[in-house]
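Supplementary notes for students who missed Thursday's class. We covered one full example, reproduced here. Read the sequence, then the structure, then the short commentary at the end.
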Amino acid sequence: MTCPLCSAETPLSTYLVEGGPQGASVDICAICLEQISGEPQPNHWRGLASAMWSEEAPVQVVAARMLKRLSAEGWAQDLLEQLYLDEETQAWADNVAAESDHKDSNGVTLNSGDTVVLIKDLPVKGGGFTAKRGTAVRGISLVQDNVEHIEGRVEGQRIVILTQYVKKK
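Structure (token representation):
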């Protein structure tokens, strides 16, 4: 299958697009998935020039958000200026979790993409391992319908973590 963001011909994974309709997702390649929650490599995202015109709103939202993150690049800024989204889709693209009600164990606001540290050993149900205290979880995602849950990757597996067991790094 082809990734709608970068046009790579690789296996795709489902990425939940936060801030919009529940369950809204887009199937993207592993490289896009890694760079969305980590450090984006500008040249990988040149495919956004066509992705931003997709007829699928989740693809448009991810494209708009990535163009904003890459706006220091001249080509990304040019594309961002050309991008037109209807009001509802624009509101969704702008609705990143900056106004989050997700709080860590110390009451510090958590945002999508943050790095947190586990403050307790957590047995991972169905994973067959224990996530150890002190483990850094980078590029977290916020669970939109539950402010006590975040998602992150530990030992290569994406897990749900209770916010009471993490602190923002």
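Commentary. Helices lie at 30-37, 48-51, 57-69, 74-82, 87-94. The CA atoms of residues 54 and 60 lie 6 Å apart. If anything here is unclear, bring it to office hours.
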